Amino acid sequence: MLSVSLIITTYNRPDALAAVLHSVKQQTVLPNEVLIADDGSTDETRQVIEKYQQNYPVALKHIWRPDDGFRAAECRNRALAVAKSEYIVMIDGDMLLSPEFIADHRQVAQQGVFVQGSRVLLTAKKTAQLLQSTNYPLPKWYEQGVLKRKSAWRIPILSAIIARPKTQKLRGIRTCNCAFFREDALAINGFNNDFVGWGREDSEFVVRFFNNGGQRINLKFAAIAFHLYHQEQPRQSLAENDQRLTQAIEQHLTYCENGVSLFSGSLNNK
Predict the structure, then answer these.
(1) Considering its fold, how many domains does the chain have in total?
(2) Residue 238: predicted pLDDT
(3) Which of 126, 149, 193, 248 is least enclosed by beta carbons within 10 angstroms?
């Protein structure tokens, strides 16, 4: 059976992370381990993780780095470096997972393929309601406060048909719901740690993935994930990050020097 490591990125949103960890516990097929890639959160996040670690059905690891700016690429690399499974599923720390989420991702796993999942957006009001609950009930597609409603429909037969075409399109790349074989990520040295600030570190990773012979499939009507409302990140670094993305495209790069290999030794795991 294919082993799966679930990597969850987070930064100072302990209430959302608690809801996410609760939804992971409800999976029909559990991941083999859960790795929290923490971009420098305060002790409130650590306390949430320690509480769940006391009675969690799989290994739950806290991988923390100092808070010195938005460094999602580095966070993911730190988790990727210590992941023990063959297959990697990545989500953001504010994504509530449907019970079949991990099972759906395992169903479409293919070597050399980046799987792009979708998301169901929730309004600020709906998010607040969910986080006030103790059992974090998953919304229904028809409820108020649910946006992109079709993304909340789980239709396995239709999902299988849509996932068949393989492409190398970059549009809509988001690591809030994606998956790939760890071996494929290590071959391109993971994410580029040079990316600081919001934007394009995910697209640049996929460009090198494609340049190394990889392809993409879109996972729709399966692996349903509800994205809690959050304010957008500042985008002052976007122009510089766009340049790095353009460089990877124009130079047909497959490898980044400042990548996951930097963390092949000891890490700050809590």
Answers:
(1) 1
(2) 83
(3) 149
